[in-house]
Amino acid sequence: MNYHFRKAELSEIAQIWKILQQAIVRRKEDGSDQWQDGYPNPEVVQKDIEKGEGFVLVEGETIIGYSAVLINDEPAYEKIEGNWLTNDNFVVIHRVAISEKYLGKGSAKMIIKFIEDFALSNNIYSVKADTNFDNIAMMKIFENLGYTYCGEVFFRGSPRKAYEKVLVKSF
């Protein structure tokens, strides 16, 4: 398969929003409160892309996944109830969503691996992320990929499980 991970373009907001809407419905069907309050929305995606932080996973020309990727930019992470593994520069993963047709094929793991490569290419050796307490699928992905549970962070008044992975420099 021919997969690429690249910055999203403003012209792709509709396709990305369709994938996020599918994920919002899946979260609800799983009994999760995550993403059930009007966030994320197309305006959030537009801001991600305008700031150069919106990324898509594509197979050929087809967008199959979306994620926001930020560097050192998550104020909520300063107030963790617990402890991060590192205090150096870090990459943040937000809003991972996979197209309905590509579920169960390891696409979310692929996005996270691409983000880890992105971090290393920027000489950053820490990736941090968080998820809702009831997003079992995402917690399993983090654990399977070697992320360490570090404590709780709070977004819009809700506690979230915070994870970090320290990447190894490759020579």
Number of strands: 8
Q: Report the major sheet.
A: 8 strands, mixed
CATH class: Alpha Beta
Succession of helices and strands: EHHEEEEHEHEE
pLDDT < 50 runs, ≥5 residues: none
Strand-residue fraction?
25-35%
Shape: globular
Please provide a written account of the structure.
The chain has helices at residues 13-29, 42-50, 107-121, 136-144, and strands at residues 3-7, 54-59, 62-71, 81-82, 91-98, 126-132, 148-155, 158-166. The two termini are 27 Å apart. It has one domain: Gcn5-related N-acetyltransferase (GNAT) (Aminopeptidase). The chain has 171 residues and is of the alpha+beta class. Helix 3 (107-121) links the parallel strand 5 (91-98) and strand 6. It is globular, with a radius of gyration of 15 Å.
Q: Which short descriptors sum up this protein?
A:
single chain, alpha+beta, Aminopeptidase, 8-stranded mixed sheet, 32% strand
Short description:
This protein is an alpha+beta fold and 171 residues long.
List the helices and strands and how they pair.
Layout: E1 3-7, H1 13-29, H2 42-50, E2 54-59, E3 62-71, E4 81-82, E5 91-98, H3 107-121, E6 126-132, H4 136-144, E7 148-155, E8 158-166
Parallel strand pairs: 5-6
Antiparallel strand pairs: 1-2, 2-3, 3-5, 4-7, 6-8, 7-8
